[in-house]
Every structure is written in structure tokens, then in C-alpha cells.
Amino acid sequence: MNERILHDYNDFVLPFLIGFVFLVSYLFIGLVRLIYHIPPKDRRKLLMSFINPRIFLKNIKDITFDCLLHIKIYKRNLLLGYMHFSIAFGWFMLIVVGHIEVLLYAPKSTGWQHLYYPIFFRYFLEQNGQTTLRGAFFFFLMDFFLLMVLGGIGLAIFKRIKSLAFGMRRTTQASFADTVVLYCLWAIFPLRLLAEGFTAGISGGSFLTKPVHYMFANFFGNDLNIMPTWWAYSISLGLFFLALPFSRYMHIPTEPLLIVLRNAGLKARKPRKGFSEAEIYSCPSCGLCIDACPMNVQIKNLKLSSVYYMRFLRRHNHEKTERIAGACLMCGKCVAICPVGIDSCGIKIVQRGTMNNSIQFDYNYLQDGKINLLSLLEENNNNEISSPLEEEIVPKTNIANKNSSPTNKEKVIFFAGCMTHITPIIIKSMKKIFVKAGIDYIFADANGGICCGRPLLLAGKHNAANEIIKANTKIFKESGANTLVVSCPICYKVFNEEYKLKGIKVIHHTEYINNLINENRLQISKNDDVLVYHDPCDLGRGSNIYEEPRNVLRKIGNLKKAEKEGKESICCGGSLGSLTLNRQDRVRITQSSLQALTYAKPDKIITACPLCKKTFAEQSGNIPVMDIAEIVANNLI
Amino acid sequence: MVNFGFQLNTSSRVNLDKFDKQKYDRLIKAEPDVRICMACGTCTSTCAAGKFTKTSLRKAILLLQNGDEKGAVENLKGCMLCGKCTLVCPRGINTRNLINNILKIYNK
């Protein structure tokens, strides 16, 4: 191939060059600013992550899988996944193959030419003589990937008309910049096909560009149309780059950066700067979280979903971001399904911290000496049965079992938590289970306990929460126990994540009961009741416990699936995560969640969280809502 | 003062001069539920912090309406936001938001 244009330059490359240079400088300044806003400690973490080969490999893997192949979107919806894959991967390959062609056929290109040669290759080079096999191969590749992208664009246009076919009920309202970039994106590749089609007679082409060339040669009969199409192609590219930083498509360059920062272990520390900024610009505004958000049952609350939170944050709209941050239930569903993996709840909690900065709590009463923290707990030795519930069972045989069992060294402390204290049936059931299994346990908050601290953390009050965490840690440490059984997922999550309980194993009562049954320390009877299990947010999405409760329930009754369950389970509406949501709105969420749960017409709804139980019980009508401990205690043999 | 052998206690009745309408309106805007409280005291009876220290939402709301801002804040400072009161409130008041906003608006 030969270069056919004098000076290897034509004015039509200018729109592209201007757009491209603008975009690159914008991204560079943005990157410097972002790194400047990251606290020094995190910056060091980021540097260390580049040296660590494990993180480095993970970065490459994540960027390939998420940004190019879009595996996460495939898992959600095949068509939606293919649309993203074809545009991203096809375009990427066009760029790569374009550069290879330049290297092979125009190795003399220098300086500015490097920027526009791969893009407008077909204009600047002409074919001399027959196409070689190698040349034909590259022509084929270029046309193949162009066809792939065009297919993706076709799907994207179809998606605008019928988004339900892509598994999306609701989608976001596009801003002006979004619309400009969207139309540019739609125009770029058809224009490229036209432009390359017009020049295919000179520079050569393959199965796609050649037929286009012959078609137009018959229509127009001359080459005068070459210039307008190349200009149009260049202008659409230039406009795309110019508008990109102000649109949602900014996620294309930002997502790889977010992956690198996240893999380095960075977290949001300020609501709008540093790591949060990377998350804000990585949000593609796809709107998957609108369908996921439990608040979507009311049209007036549609704009409380995370996608709008990110958009308003980006626009520095404090009033609206504070409203959303206050109302969010922190159920984590939007984070769980986000194809980019943006932790919007993390940013919301940081913002709550700034919103609630002026609130001052005073936990002087928890200090040493003010109250005797150890007076709160109560030792329950099962040899001295006192409570009437426990009278029926005399665990003589079990005690013999216990001594021979391998876990007889375990010393159990049971923490009920605030929420379990207002659903006392769970405490009674747990006591019954402990007695039946012959376990000596300490009841950590028998005489009224201290909150676990998670509600304060959710309100952004870190320092206040730390005082409570300190007091609770003291109780657990001084009890001498090595297994902490918790009946509330809220406490469970915070004990696991924020407490430093070295030597104490934190275990949720669903896991504990499951273990007891598996070790044959509890025998339960099975009946035909149709059961459905509700995944509490903090236990399922929050702590990744999905299978243990289901294992237990399969041994008790006929466990059916809910309409939405596991990662997609809908919050009960009672969440402590929301600060400002009022009762009327919460009731609507509870009803929609119940609707999904009663899909299989269950006899009983089972959950593993006292808060969910209490919230559902008010609205469930004649279907009883039970905690897992309750149904196990009822079915003990 | 002449000693009559007895003395009068200072009045604990409402002193409307001390009641700050502007602040109260801000509170109502932030959490309208404050108006539907019927002072039944269920929140106070279940309160986790109330076991250890004087924390009472019921009392705080009453003091606030009687113009005693300082007393109201004192009665809420020990709150751990655990949310028990929200669950038991028969009027469905969003108590945690109410507590947060009282502390925000009336804290000096």
C-alpha cells in the first residue's frame, strides 16, 4: 500500500483532532485532580497495589471482563450484554487492528499522524496492485469488527424503542449532553461504513465496504462524495469526544480507573472528592438500579434511586443529594446488581456524616464505673432450669452427648440485640434450642443491652459508634466466651466488620442452628407446610448468607421460591438504614415485598431478622411471619 | 425576703416567651411527625439507652413544646439510634429522624 495524499494531511481530520486532544487533556487534568484529593494514606495504598502482582493481574482480569466483555451485563440479560459487548469489544478491536495496519503498511508515519492515521487509514492509503493474503486478512478483520459494532448500534437503537426486551422496565431520563453523545455514537459507525465504502475502490475493502462501494458507484458515478462523508465521519467523532466529559458516557474512560482504585482497597471518604469522584464519573446512568430500588413502588420516589443520586452528586446539587442520602434504605440491592460495581451506599453514608455533623451524642454513661456492664449478662447453666419454657425439656441425655462431641470446648455467648428484644418470641425460641441441644450459654443482654452501633454507623456517626463498640467489646471479652451467637443480622454485620473480637467467632443464629442440625445435636420434624424464605438485607447481600437458612427450612417443610430472592430480595421496608423515610412510604415497600414473597402462596413466611419479622407481621394478613429460630423451636423433636 | 415558713416552687408551666416558633417550624419541616405524638410514652418504656441514663423522647417532645430546649436536648443525648422506639410507636412516628433533627436544630 502507498500513501496517496500529499503531505499526508487533509483538513477533514481537524474536528477529530480537536475533539481528541480536548478529551485527553480533560482526562489528564481530571486524573491529577482526583489523585490530589485522595488522602496520602490511600495514595500509598494505590502505589503499593501497582507492585503487587496479584492485584495487578486482578486489575487486568477485571478490566477485560467488565469493560470489554461486559460479563456482568451478560449474566443479567443476554441481549443487553451482547449490545454492550459488541460496541465495546468491536470498537476496541477496530482501534487495535487499525494500529497494527499502520505499523505494517505506513511505518514512516510520525508525530501528529500517529493520532489520525489509524482512524482515517482508508483515506490516506491506496492499494497498489492485487490484495495480498495478509492485506485481505486485515480488510476482513476491519469489516468484521465494523459489522459487529454496527450490529450493536442497531440493538442500541432498538433498545430506545423497546427497553423491556433488554430486561429494563424503567430507564433514566437523558440529559442534553447524553443525547448529543448518543446521536454521535449512533452516527459514527454508519458514517465510517459510508466513508470507507466510498474509498473502497481506491484503498480496498472486504465483504462489507466493497459492496457498499459498488452500490454507491452505480448511484453517484463519481468520487466527489468522498470528501463530505469523511468530513461527516470526522465531525461526528470530534463532537463525540467534545461532549463526552459532560455526559454519562464518561463511564467509558473512568471505569478502568475505578477498577484499579477499588482493587487497591480504596473507599469513599468524602462525598464528592477522590475515590467518590471516580465512582460518580463511572456511573453509566444505565438505570438498572431504578428497577432494583425498593422505593420504586411509588412514582414520586423514583428519583430516590442511586442513579439519580450519582447524577445530582455530579452536578453538585446538595439539596437533592441530601434528600436521597437521608431516605435511602441502605438495602444494598443497587450495589449488588450494579454492572460497574459502584458502592453508592458507601458514598451516602459518608455524606450522612457531613449532614449530621452537628449532632452530638453523649455516651458518658457507658464509660467504666458508671454502670456495671457485666451485670447485663446472665449465665444460663442448663442444669438449673428456671424459666417455664425450659422446664419441659430435661437435657440429661444431651449433656452426655455434649461431653463426647468435639465442640464441647465452645463457650457460647448469645447476643439478642435491640430488635430481638421487641420480638421476645425469638429469645424464647433460642433459649429452647440452647436447652434442647444442651448448650450452656451466657445471655449477653438479658438485662437490657447496648445497641450494636450499626444504626449510628449508618447515620454517619463514626466516633459515636466507636464508643458503643468499645463498651460491647468489653462485655464480650470479659465473658470469656469464644462463640458469639447473634440473632439479628444488623448486629451480625457490624460485629463482623467493625468489631475487633479476636478469639471470638461471630455466628448468626441461622448458621448456628444449621450447624447444630448437621451435627445431629438437634432433631427436627418435617411437615408439608409451604414455606418461603425472605433474605434480610444485612444477612444476604450484607453478609453473604443465603444457603444456611434454606438448608434448615428444607428439613422442616416444603420450601418454595419467592418471586425475587437471594441477591434480588426486596427490603422489608423497616430498614434502619433509612433516616427520613416516613411510615406511609415504608408500608408501601413492605406490601410490595410481601407481594413478591407470597408469589408461591406459602403457608408461612420465614425470615431470619427480628426487624423484618416485625415489619412484615403488621401487613401480612393471615399468613404468619416467623423467625427461623421460632419455626425450628416449634418443630423440635 | 420575709421568711413565712414556706416557699413557692418556681413554676414549671409553659412560658411561651421561651418557645422559639421559628425553630419549631424548622423541626416540623424536617420531620412533620412531631405533631402527631400523643405522649403515650411507649418509646420511653422500650428505650435501650433509657435503662442507663435519662433518655426519653416523650419527655423531650413535651419539654420542647414547653420552651425548654436545653432540657429536650439533655433528654436525647444518650440516644443510640437503635430504632426500637420507631417500631413500637403506635402513631408510626419516624422517631430517629425526629431525634436527629431535634439535636441538629436545638443543639448549641
Topology:
The complex is a heterodimer of chains A (637) and B (108).
Chain A: E1 2-3, H1 13-37, H2 40-51, H3 53-69, H4 71-76, H5 78-105, H6 113-116, H7 121-124, E2 125-126, H8 133-161, H9 176-203, H10 209-220, H11 226-243, H12 251-263, H13 275-282, H14 288-292, H15 306-314, H16 318-327, H17 333-337, H18 344-355, E3 378-380, H19 388-391, H20 396-404, E4 412-415, H21 417-421, H22 424-437, E5 441-443, H23 454-458, H24 462-479, E6 483-486, H25 489-497, E7 505-508, H26 509-518, E8 530-533, H27 547-554, E9 558-560, H28 583-597, E10 604-607, H29 610-619, E11 625-627, H30 628-634
Parallel strand pairs in A: 4-5, 4-6, 6-7, 8-9, 8-10, 10-11
Antiparallel strand pairs in A: 1-2, 3-5
Helix pairs in contact in A: 1-11, 3-12, 5-8, 8-9, 9-10, 9-11, 12-13, 13-15, 15-16, 16-18, 22-30, 26-27
Chain B: H1 21-30, H2 42-46, H3 57-65, H4 69-74, H5 84-88, H6 95-106
Helix pairs in contact in B: 1-6
